[in-house]
Write a structure and sequence with these properties.
The complex is a heterodimer. Chain A is mainly α. In chain A, 64% of the residues lie in helices and 4% in strands. In chain A, strands 1-2 form a two-stranded antiparallel ribbon. Chain B starts with 22 loop residues before the first helix and ends with a helix. The chains are: A mainly alpha, B mainly alpha.
């Protein structure tokens, strides 16, 4: 699925056949073909406007003072960076809320959730796909069964549950034993590290690597962990990329969960922080600056890795 | 579901005296050790909460309470269906939302996929454009559209301009008759690119030979679609419909950010109601019952999916 974005021409060819094997279809030169092409381009352009105008409006408005946003709204100027353009709204956001702290929190939570998830889930995928042990089949079936539990169904009971989990807290320089995970970093990270779908994707990918590699390494006396680390991980770049991308977006976009379990401002992730900022009745220009600020990094990451993003999502569907 | 057991060389004799020293024993221990972190985490943060949702729904548990939860039988479920009109309204809204979003989003996604699957210059660019809203957070999208939906906002101004003043906009989010529809539009706008990609992956699994054969038989574009493309997309279709349905039934963020369930509960949803009851009003037992009902709905859909795809496997 690597070519979905880059090589549209492959789309109409047989799956997995090498490029040269498929005979190129001659371009239609008839009048009917030309009309069809024009119609396609017109439809795609209209749709492109539909998908882009809100985002263009957002970025442009973030650069304007409120009075001008309202003044421009009835004209095409709403989509053009014209008039009184400045970064004042962005400075305003930083003055009003600790958005730097929110960004730090979200980056920390995202990096740890994705990073630890890659380790934990790939180990589990390895154990399930390449090792033979008692209970393997039962565990695999259980993991697959948990795939259908949407997070929304367990979110509220889980608040009750994490509020009773034991934790260690520093109190006056002494490490104390206490209960309740509310208002911590760990409550935003630990529940999302293990992911049944990631385990499944890893297991599936690992099972395509020839087992003869394991056998050779076993004869040389390698431990199973060495085989995992030295043979399987280096050969599974695409699987790691797919899982990283598929877990990155939900971690960065977390909203419902931190809304319920994090009240302390200094622990808030960007999405919840934005909702509070929005409720302060701030000027729309500043709100647009905030939304632009947290959208741009993800957008840039996407545009750089667009191919990997799209093939990851395609993989999630084809295998599902 | 095709994770086959490795055909490893582990056919060594099993009758070794010390199982721990044998290759087989080591393999078992390695397997358990490597599975353990994920297993413990899934147990703690998935299986226990599911069981907890089940048990709490038969109690009057509160989030923070000096009294231990008391068993109340089916009271919570009776209350949901007989004494809580907001729940029924929320269930109806959720159902309506899914009823519109599922076919429209799936259909538009397929249309986009077919458009960008043609061999034309520039389709790559359009794929990226159609996908951009997907990587934009739904919280950002909700705030942005709330701004645009204001009565003197961008949407009304555009309606006014495009129809030369013939049509008047509405106060979209403050009118009970338009609020849910307004949320439907932005939800589809945000998510349809995702399903375009899934459809596209499905389109690419259809061998070109089938199209060539159809063209040789003189089949029109439309006949090619109904006789080659559509049958080839069946597994993809089931997947797309089920994922959209489950996501649609879980509608929460848009409502929380844009309307808080209002006006007059016209945009309240099942998950929003569960969070309102369980978290804001601390009635965990009742919220667990609502969550359980939601879960049963999802389970039924998943079973229908299995049933629809059974002959394939």
């Amino acid at each position: 699925m690597t070519g979905i974005l880059e090589r549209p021409s492959r789309a109409t060819r047989p799956h997995r056949s090498p490029r040269s094997a498929a005979p190129a279809r001659p371009r239609t030169r008839t009048a009917e073909g030309r009309t069809g092409r024009i119609l396609t381009y017109v439809s795609m352009s209209v749709l492109a406007v539909f998908f882009l105008f809100p985002l263009v409006f957002m970025f442009v408005s973030s650069l304007k003072p409120d009075a001008q946003i309202l003044q421009d709204i009835d004209s095409p100027a709403a989509f053009l960076p014209t008039g009184d353009i400045s970064l004042d709204n962005y400075f305003g956001v930083f003055e009003r809320v600790p958005v730097g702290q929110f960004l730090f929190n979200s980056i920390l939570v995202t990096v740890l959730t994705v990073g630890l998830g890659l380790v934990v889930n790939s180990l589990a995928g390895f154990a399930l796909s390449r090792l033979r042990w008692k209970g393997r089949v039962v565990v695999l079936a259980l993991v697959i069964a948990t795939l259908i539990v949407p997070f929304e169904t367990i979110a509220v009971p889980m608040v009750y549950w994490v509020n009773q989990l034991p934790t260690l807290v520093m109190e006056g320089g002494v490490l104390k034993y206490d209960f309740g995970w509310l208002n911590t970093y760990q409550v935003q990270i630990v529940p999302f590290i293990a992911n049944a779908f990631s385990i499944f994707l890893f297991a599936q990918y690992f099972s395509t690597i020839p087992t003869s590699l394991d056998e050779a390494a076993r004869i040389d006396g390698a431990s199973w962990f060495t085989i995992y680390r030295r043979i399987i991980v280096p050969l599974s770049g695409p699987a790691f990329a797919t899982v990283a991308i598929l877990t990155f977006l939900p971690a960065w976009n977390q909203y419902l969960w931190p809304l319920m379990v994090v009240q302390k401002e200094e622990l808030r992730p960007v999405m919840v922080g934005m909702q509070y900022f929005f409720q302060l009745n701030t000027a729309w220009g500043e709100v647009m600056a905030y939304t632009s600020l947290i959208t741009l990094p993800v957008l840039i990451v996407f545009l750089v890795f667009q191919r990997a993003f799209v093939s990851s999502i395609a993989a999630s569907g084809v295998k599902g | 579901m095709t994770v086959s057991p490795p055909v490893a060389a582990a056919e060594q004799p099993r009758r070794s005296l010390s199982r721990f020293r044998s290759a087989r024993g080591r393999e078992t221990w390695a397997g358990l050790a490597m599975m353990a972190p994920a297993a413990v985490l899934l147990l703690l943060f998935l299986i226990v909460p599911v069981l907890l949702a089940f048990t709490l729904s038969f109690t009057n548990a509160r989030l923070i309470s000096p009294n231990p939860p008391r068993f109340v039988g089916l009271d919570n479920f009776l209350r949901a269906f007989t004494a809580d009109p907001v729940f029924l309204q929320s269930a109806l809204n959720t159902f309506l939302f899914a009823l519109v979003v599922v076919p429209v989003q799936a259909g538009l996604g397929l249309f986009l996929a077919i458009l960008v699957n043609q061999r034309l210059r520039g389709t790559t660019f359009f794929r990226v454009v159609f996908f951009v809203p997907v990587v934009t957070s739904i919280v950002v999208v909700s705030i942005l559209w709330r701004f645009m939906y204001q009565s003197d906002g961008l949407i009304n101004s555009m309606i006014d301009t495009l129809t030369l003043g013939a049509l008047q906009g509405a106060d979209w989010l403050n009118d009970p008759s338009t609020a849910l529809g307004a949320i439907i539009v932005l939800s589809i706008w945000q998510a349809v690119g995702f399903h375009m990609i899934i459809w596209l992956a499905g389109l690419q699994t259809i061998p070109e030979e089938l199209y060539e054969a159809a063209r040789m038989d003189g089949a029109s574009r439309w006949r090619q679609f109904t006789n080659v493309t559509w049958p080839g997309l069946r597994p993809t279709m089931v997947f797309v419909l089920v994922t959209i349905t489950i996501a649609a039934l879980g509608l929460f963020v848009q409502v929380d950010v844009m309307t808080q369930g209002g006006p007059l509960n016209s945009t309240s949803t099942v998950v929003f109601h569960a969070v309102r009851k369980g978290y804001e009003q601390q009635e965990i037992g009742y919220a667990a019952a609502i969550s359980l009902l939601f879960f049963v709905a999802v389970l039924i859909i998943a079973l229908i999916q299995r049933w629809l795809t059974r002959e394939k496997n």
